[in-house]
Amino acid sequence: MIKLVNSFLTEHDKEKVNNFLEDYNNMDPIRELKNKIKQIFQINNCYPVNSGSSALHIALMAIGVKKNDEVICTTHTCVAILNAIKYVGANVILVDCKYDVNKMDYNIKLNDIKKKITSKTKALIIPHMFGVACEIEEIKNIGIPIIEDITLSVGARFSDSSLIGTKGDITVSSFHRTKVISADVGGIIWSNNQKYEKNICDILDYDGMYSLQYKQTYNYVMGDINAVLAASQIDQLEKFISIRRKNADILNMELRDIKYINIPDINKNNIYFRYIIEINNEMTSEYIVNEGIKKGIQFGRGVFPALHNVLGLDNSNFVNSERAQKKLLSIPVYPGLSKSDLIYICDTLKNILRS
Ligand SMILES: *Cc1c(COP(=O)(O)O)cnc(C)c1O
């Protein structure tokens, strides 16, 4: 079975983990990871944590989001974001996604955000979906704190060529094994805003919990072995991205003459964490996913179900996400695939589309 998602552990990763285990007491992998991330994103500090969900929870607490506040987010994303909003007791306000097949842009529909803002809105969570930057410049001037979630797009760039994760008030990422960077489990959070930065530091101050003045803190810090893996994967990020782009080129070449689909344009800012096409005959992505499994290939649907589905909200307010769930197909594109895997995937897809 060719899986849709595969974490890609290399010899480099294994060597780094082995070296660490040999010299466990003399290494400081958390510091090493922090230094690498600080250098890439040109930031003063960052905090490795035990998951992306924890990072989101900390971000909302650091901003001071509380019970009955509102947090705006795209419906077309994963449940972890919804969970984090629930952890602080806030209400989630969902916005539909864009639907741009050529740009592979299914990020939050910026125009709809403004309509949803009320006096209770305390934060916007913006996940950059599938490897493509959500251009947040135009929503920064609204003045509501923005949490950038770069989990699915680490290394992707905005149209002005700056890295995603550099424009929001707080940036979070998961390093779960199914994401761009694998620490097995883990995540990271940082902020250039001094107030938020101090709050993040206080929330994570597990060592300080024996001070005389009680304050509640969270043991959300990352484990050392996870940090070794994350740092090792970050060393290889550029290589991983270039393999993804090469794989996307192969898929584009193989799929460009097929009548029944629309494919994304080649875009140098996209890291192709997913490679998503639109089916334009009468078939649904659900049908193709099921046919693919019979042929040994796991295709996906991008996001399914979306958050408005999970919450039982009225579908008619989320037409793009609904359409995306019916007509978009996610094709394996990760670094571990060989050229012959990719060609087999495309041939199989062609056969299903013609059947
Ligand atoms: C998976 C995911 C998370 C949650 O990360 P975990 O490490 O699994 O808790 C958060 N945000 C996005 C966009 C994700 O895809």
TrEMBL record:
Entry-linked Gene3D superfamilies: Aspartate Aminotransferase, domain 1, Type I PLP-dependent aspartate aminotransferase-like (Major domain)
Asked whether the UniProt record includes Transferase among its keywords, one would answer yes
Which InterPro entries does the UniProt record give? DegT/StrS_aminotransferase (IPR000653), PyrdxlP-dep_Trfase (IPR015424), PyrdxlP-dep_Trfase_major (IPR015421), PyrdxlP-dep_Trfase_small (IPR015422)
The answer to whether UniProt assigns keyword rRNA-binding to this entry is no
Give one Pfam family, short name only: DegT_DnrJ_EryC1
State the UniProt keywords alphabetically: Aminotransferase, Pyridoxal phosphate, Transferase
Q: Which GO MF terms are attached to this record?
A: transaminase activity
Q: Tell me which SUPFAM superfamilies the record gives.
A: PLP-dependent transferases
Q: Which domain of life is it from?
A: Bacteria
Assigned protein family: Belongs to the DegT/DnrJ/EryC1 family.
What protein name applies here?
DegT/DnrJ/EryC1/StrS family aminotransferase
The uppermost taxa in this organism's lineage are: Bacteria, Bacillati, Bacillota, Clostridia, Eubacteriales
